[in-house]
Design a protein that fits this description.
With about 270 residues, the chain is α/β, with parallel strands linked by helices. The protein is about 45% helix and about 15% strand. The protein has 9 helices and 7 strands. The protein has a 7-stranded parallel β-sheet with strand order 3-2-1-4-5-6-7, with helices on both faces. Helix 1 (about 15-25) runs parallel beside helix 2 (about 40-50) and helix 4 (about 105-135) packs parallel to helix 6. The termini are far apart.
Length: about 270
């Protein structure tokens, strides 16, 4: 897929990985829909950064957990530019809860995370598929988590939701081909506001240092480290679909080595509360 002149939607693109994806796509010539649910100021800053590349950007508020909002986001892109070429399903939520304490989660927590992380991604895909099929091509990238591979993560509900997202990625890659490619990236710890605000600076520092010690590349990811493979899966991977690409600095390679990554690594580094 050629990004120059394309139209790409990035959900949850006010900050972090989503913002990095939006700016990187704009820098390669794409016209970008920047989506946010609450962080309007940061989303406008992302829009300004996108437009500074010389390409158009459109700001659209919407909660992907609501199907009507997903259709509104897609319709806004079509009304403005008449096409949709790429979708990055980046919007996501979590609840930080020690996996060893099962009483920290209830059914409502699972429903909230699944509503955004899985159903929201599905609803966005469903909203853009008609335009992509009419064009005869399209590419979708879901942002997952390596928590599904190592059994860690911010909570059991979060890891379960990303596991469901991975399964959905494979199913939709089969169902939507050959016109539409569907892939996912699976990052580990990212130095972003999302995690820093979620656990606090002191706990984040502990998580960062322990992860960096376990990762083959010796550090945690910056948002741009994740955005690069997302953009590549849209632009440079025309014969790839149904893949879940690990973007974790090699932390998964720790299994069986002198310093293995243990499933409870994040739990032991954070101070959890109800």
């Amino acid at each position: 897929m050629k990004l120059a002149g394309s139209v790409c939607i990035v959900t949850g693109s006010a900050t972090g990985v989503g913002a990095a994806c939006a700016v990187m796509l704009a820098g390669k010539g794409a016209r970008v829909v920047i989506n946010y649910s609450r962080s309007e100021r940061e989303a406008r800053e992302t829009m300004v950064a996108c437009m500074a590349t010389g390409n158009e950007a459109l700001l659209v508020q919407g909660n992907v957990a609501n199907d009507a909002d997903c259709r509104w986001i897609a319709d806004a892109a079509l009304e403005r530019w008449g096409r949709i070429d790429g979708l990055v399903n980046n919007a996501g939520v979590t609840k930080f809860a020690n996996p060893a304490d099962l009483d920290l989660l209830d059914a409502a927590d699972f429903h909230r995370l699944l509503d955004v992380n899985v159903i929201g991604a599905f609803q966005m895909i469903r909203a853009v598929v008609p335009a992509m099929r009419a064009q005869g091509q399209g590419a979708i990238v879901n942002v997952s988590s390596n928590a599904t591979a190592i059994g860690g993560g911010s909570s059991i509900a979060y890891t379960a939701s990303k596991g469901a997202l991975n399964a959905m990625t494979l199913t939709l890659a089969r169902a939507l081909g050959p016109e539409i490619r569907v892939n996912a990236v699976s990052p580990g710890v990212i130095d972003s506001r999302w995690l820093r605000d979620g656990v606090g600076e002191a706990a984040f520092a502990a998580v960062r240092d322990r992860y960096a010690d376990a990762a083959t590349l010796g550090r945690v990811a910056q948002p741009e480290d994740v955005a690069e493979p997302v953009v590549w899966l849209l632009e440079g991977a025309d014969f790839i679909t149904g893949e879940i690409l690990a973007v974790d600095g090699g932390v998964r390679l720790g299994a069986g080595l002198a310093k293995p990554v243990r499933p409870k690594w994040i739990a032991s580094s954070l101070r959890f509360s109800q």
